[in-house]
Amino acid sequence: MSHEQIIWDQALIEKYNYSGPRYTSYPTALEFHEAFTPAEFDMACAQYPDRNLSLYVHIPFCHKLCYYCGCNKIITRHQHKADQYLDVLEQEIRQRAALLGDRNVSQLHWGGGTPTFLTKPQVSRLMGLLRELFNFASDAEISIEVDPREIDLDMLDHLRAEGFNRLSIGVQDFNKEVQKLVNREQDEEFIFAMVERAKELGFRSTNLDLIYGLPKQNRELFAKTLEQVLTLKPGRLSIFNYAHMPKLFAAQRKINEADLPAAKEKLAILQDTIATLTGVGYQFIGMDHFALPDDELAVAQRNGILHRNFQGYTTQGDCDLLGLGVSAISMIGDCYAQNQKELKKYYASVTDKREALWKGVSLDADDLLRREVIKALICNFQLDMTDIEQRFDLDFKTYFAEDLELLQTFINDELVTVDERFIQVELRGRLLIRNICMCFDKYLRDRARQQQFSRVI
């Protein structure tokens, strides 16, 4: 892969900077409906019995509210609430394990909220339960999201002892003023100490999360944060675009809109960030992710086998994903399913019905086909049309005639090239990959509901 991984074309970025889905799934979550039944879910569990299993566990609690956050979370200081949650979660896990417990688990991720809200005994309780009910591969990837503000350093030792081998640490920004304005003040020395301890303990990789577009951020200040981050040499970096949607997320109403960087400044921050990271050797994985060249994600992308699911980019694409806990999403068999999103409803559903299902969608043949097309483009920036023709027994250019017409504007602008066999996303098209994928999204065409999405950049 060349040193130059992206060509920044300001005019084209401005032309195409409209709203669109992030394609953590196709069809997107907008297509989930409440008519989806537990029976459909159970059938999906039996569909591909030989597939490995990836487990996602949602821990919704946080000690403090970060004003930018759009996650499903509950702010509390009461540790016993987590005990109550684990009681109900255990019922759900036992019920699901009865269907899927004989599968090989190759991946486990705890997200939230703040999974490290749990105390050491609570972590051990949940981990013990999962190990009792599921078969973990000896080399399973076991990761957890960490909030560096409310944690003792030796929690890392405990996590490592329980089998965790990857960390994701939410940094967001090292600038004190920015931290204050989003109610997330943290001690960078402690973050440095955490990354150091993780290396000593043998964690396979540490991912750091940053957010650009927060109040009072600008190019100079964000460059300083990036400089500090790079001294830590994280294996992966996620640089998320802050989407200000106060109507949707009440917490964001506490952010003063006048403090937010202008759209032009925000783009400049992104441009600088990409230049800095690729300049020091990071590989641009796509959208908001960067990895060092020897990281598994980077290797998978170079080999054309990267995948994407509700947790973002992953090397484990041929798994069924089982989501556990409030609001968690599963991708099992040829369906997607989401658990109840409100804690009270989740508790009631698990207690009364012995399962937590809220809504979902079963994929038809066209969905499965388009999902493969979109996944190839968003993960690997190229699509082998011959491969799709052979796998799905169709003529690509006939089947996708309407889609290729929509793609023409990107071809005209030299963002995409199409020959007899490949659709290739060019270096100047990579930042607009969401827009390019939208050409193949049948649901988006059927309904003009653009206004529900965040901007692509």
Quick summary:
The chain is an alpha/beta fold and 457 residues long. It has helices spanning 10-16, 38-45, 80-100, 120-133, 154-161, 176-181, 188-201, 219-230, 263-279, 296-302, 343-353, 365-380, 385-392, 396-399, 401-412, 433-438, 442-446, and strands at residues 53-59, 61-62, 74-75, 104-112, 135-146, 166-172, 205-212, 236-241, 283-286, 289-291, 307-309, 312-314, 320-324, 329-332, 335-339, 357-362, 382-384, 416-418, 422-425.
Overall mean pLDDT score?
A: 93
Helicity, as a percent range: 25-40%
Please indicate the percent range of residues in DSSP E strands (runs of 2 or more): 15-25%
Report the span from N to C terminus.
23 Å
The side-by-side strand order for the widest beta sheet comes to 9-10-8-7-6-5-4-1-13
* Computed Rg: 22 Å
Major sheet summary line: 9 strands, mixed
Q: Detail the poorly predicted runs.
A: none
Number of helical segments? 17
Alpha-beta content class: alpha/beta
Structural shape = globular
Count the beta strands.
19
How would you portray this structure in words?
It is a single chain. By secondary structure, the protein is an alpha/beta fold. The protein is 39% helix and 21% strand. The chain has a nine-stranded mixed β-sheet with strand order 9-10-8-7-6-5-4-1-13, sandwiched between helices. It has a three-stranded antiparallel β-sheet with strand order 14-15-16, covered by helices on one side. Strand 9 and strand 10 form a beta hairpin. Helix 3 packs parallel to helix 4 and helix 8 (219-230) packs parallel to helix 9 (263-279). The mean pLDDT is 93.
